[in-house]
Design brief:
This protein has 101 residues and is mainly alpha-helical. Helices cover 76% and strands 0% of the residues. Helix 1 packs across helix 3 and helix 2 packs across helix 3. The longest helix has 38 residues.
């Protein structure tokens, strides 16, 4: 059975705004909060960073991002990718559920 969904332009704008805000928030987490957490946890677990502290750590990360290093981009985008994977999993789980009779 096919289901037709009609969406007006205002609803599309709201969805785009919501998704853009989500992306920018999680990009902020990946660019600012995650590197801070990784640096301080790494310092406590692995010992002193082989440089001049957090500024050099962040500078190295930002250089790799600007040069197009895929691992650095994956690290920065990982909060958004994890969130989207969770959303997709929940959607698949709900759509495959057996309807109650």
């Amino acid at each position: 059975m096919a289901v037709t969904v009609t969406v007006n332009q205002n609803t599309l704008k709201q969805i785009a705004l919501k998704e853009s805000a989500l992306f920018l928030t999680l990009l902020f987490v990946g660019l600012v909060l995650a590197p801070i957490a990784i640096f301080f946890v790494g310092q406590n677990v692995l010992g002193q960073f082989g440089g001049y502290g957090y500024s050099e750590f962040f500078g190295t990360l930002s250089d790799k991002i600007r040069s197009g290093n895929l691992v650095a981009w994956f690290f920065v985008l990982s909060p958004y990718l994890v969130w989207q994977t969770l959303r997709l999993t929940v959607h698949a789980w709900r759509s495959s559920a057996v309807p109650k009779s």
